[in-house]
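Lecture 7 notes: from sequence to structure.
We start with the chain below.
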Amino acid sequence: MPVKIRLTRQGRKKRPYYHIVIADARAPRDGKFIERIGMYNPMTKPATIEIDRAKAFEWLEKGAQPTNTARAILRFTGVMYMKHLQRGVTKGAHTQEQADAKLESWLAEKQTKIDAGKAETAQELIDFRKIVDGEVKAPVAPKRDEQAEAAFREESSPEAPAEKVEEAAAEVEKAAAEVEEAPAKVEEAPAEAEEAPAEAEEAPAEVEEAPAENVEEAAVVEAETPTETKDAE
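Predicted C-alpha cells for the same chain:
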C-alpha cells in the first residue's frame, strides 16, 4: 500500500490550517488517514509549524513519500536533515553522538533565525501602526488632587458617619420643636377670634340702650307739652 505524508485542510472559509498526516495515497485529500504527526498554520506570520520529528522520521524510514508541501515542512523542521545524518551513521561517516550534536546545533541556529524573524515582524507591525495612527504617545499620569483625597479620607473614615448621624438627629429635633410651636400659634389665633365676637356682642347692647334713652326723653317732652298748652289758654 503506497503511503504518503501530506496535509489535510481544516478551518473555516478563507482561514485555513492543515494537519500533517500519514495517509493512503489513494484516499481523498480530506478523507481517512492513518496517523496525524503535526499541524501547519500558514495564516500566522511567520507560519506556525508543530511536528513530531521522531514519528515523521520513522515513517520516512518505512518508505512514506511526502508531497511537495510536506517535504518543504520536513526540511524546515530538520526531519530531512535528521534522515541525512542517520544515513551517515549507517555508513560509518560519524557516530550517533556526533549526529545528535550536529542536529542540536542546527536546530538551535534555526530557532534563532525564527526568533529574529518574529522580532522583525513585530517591529514592522509597530512601524505600520505609527504610520497609520501617528506617533505613539506615552500615557500621561493623572495629577493627584490632595484636597479631594483628604475629603475622601474624611468621608471614608469611621468617625465621619457618626458625626453625620449626630447632625441629622439635631436637625430632626429642631424640626420637631418647630412643629410643636406651630399648634400653639394656631390655638392663640382661635382665642383672639373668640374675643372679637364678644366685643361685637357688646356693641349691639350699647345700640339697644341708646334707643331706650331716646324714647324716654321723647315721652317726657310730650307729657310736658299739653300742660303748657292749657296754661296758655
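Points to note: The two ends are 184 Å apart (CA to CA). Residues 203-208, 218-233 have pLDDT under 50 and may be disordered.
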